[in-house]
Design goal:
Blueprint (H helix, E strand, L loop, with lengths): L1 E2 L1 H4 L3 E6 L13 H10 L4 E4 L2 E2 L19 E10 L8 E6 L14 H10 L3 E4 L9 H5 L6 E6 H7 L5 H9 L5 E5 L13 E6 L4 H10 L2 E4 L4 E6 L3 E15 L5 E15 L2 H4 L3 E7 L5 E3 L3 E2 L1
Parallel strand pairs: 2-3, 3-5, 4-5, 7-8, 8-9
Antiparallel strand pairs: 1-12, 2-10, 5-6, 6-7, 10-11, 11-16, 12-13, 13-14, 13-15, 15-16, 15-17
Length: about 300
């Protein structure tokens, strides 16, 4: 059996959140307090991604002063431009932007802005698709996006639209090689922090190393459960995880296999031909509290 690329990558896992807001845009807390919240909450890194809008003077929070030996930050923003299929303003998560990233130009579209973020070296993701009913046609207009949020905590706690699995699985079924994010998108107006995060495998807890690992897909996402290892074989996949009530391997459409056994920590699931036919599979782990963890897709 072969170790999943995430777990075979060099380094160790670092806990972080890459979608959060401060009072530089529509958040409640200042940047220093936001960084302190995550640092004191046991996180290794944070990307503070305020809304890059003219009404907030196009902020990119300079969080470098809040780094310590044990905690780092990545600069970024949530950028916006017209327009999705439903006429909504695009929301695009860009992590790893320079402080001098130019404001959105008059007439600049969402796809054009996303490409400019990519050209600037950012890790680009599609945030909270369920929140504003983003379509696969929308996603196709930003083909360079690295990831989609499978879970957005503030969308879940505010409006019950935090789930992005519908878009993730449709894009994967179309052959789109994307990764999966769980984020807080915390604004601190309600209890919307510490609900979803990434475990990133990198050789150092430093911005460039973390950014490279994100782009390489060397991470998994979680609301609490941990995934310790995944081993892929020709006929089965083995998952080692924290105590779970359900562990599933998911393919295209309804193709899946699930083990539902309270207290399980090591599971072997069969990879039948129908499950492998879509060319990919991903792992989901559910604990007794209903919290989930998600692997990135494995491509056969």
């Amino acid at each position: 059996m072969r170790a999943d690329p995430v777990f075979a990558a060099p380094g160790r896992f670092w806990k972080g959140n890459i979608h959060t807001h401060s009072n530089l845009s529509d958040g409640v807390r200042g940047p220093a307090e936001v960084c302190a919240t995550y640092r004191e909450g046991g996180y290794d890194f944070l990307a503070l991604t305020d809304h890059f809008w003219a009404k907030y003077d196009f902020p990119i929070a300079d969080t470098r002063p809040y780094r310590t030996e044990a905690f780092t930050t990545i600069l970024g923003a949530e950028v916006h431009a017209p327009a999705t299929a439903l006429g909504e303003t695009w929301h695009i998560l860009a992590v790893g932007l320079p402080l001098d990233f130019a404001p959105t130009a008059e007439g600049e579209t969402g796809p054009q802005l996303a490409q400019r973020c990519l050209d600037a070296g950012a890790f680009v993701a599609i945030p909270h698709p369920g929140w504003y009913s983003l379509t696969t046609e929308d996603a196709a207009t930003i083909p360079g996006a690295h990831a989609v949020e499978i879970y957005n905590h503030t969308s879940a706690t505010r409006v019950d639209r935090g789930d992005g699995a519908y878009l993730v699985d449709q894009l994967l079924a179309q052959g789109r090689r994307i990764t999966l994010l769980a984020t807080d998108d915390a604004h601190f107006a309600n209890r919307d922090w510490f609900g979803g995060w990434l475990m990133v495998k990198a050789e150092a807890n430093e911005p460039e190393a973390l950014l490279s690992a994100l782009k390489a897909g060397h991470f998994y996402s979680t609301q609490g459960p941990s995934i310790e290892a995944i081993h892929w074989g020709e006929e089965s996949v083995e998952v080692i995880c924290s105590t779970a009530t359900a562990v599933a391997v998911l393919g295209r459409g309804s193709a899946s296999k699930t083990s539902v056994v309270p207290g399980q920590t090591r599971v072997t699931l069969p990879l039948e031909a129908r499950l492998k036919a879509g060319g990919f599979a991903r792992i989901a782990v559910v604990d007794a509290e209903g919290r989930r963890a998600w692997s990135n897709p494995y491509w056969f």
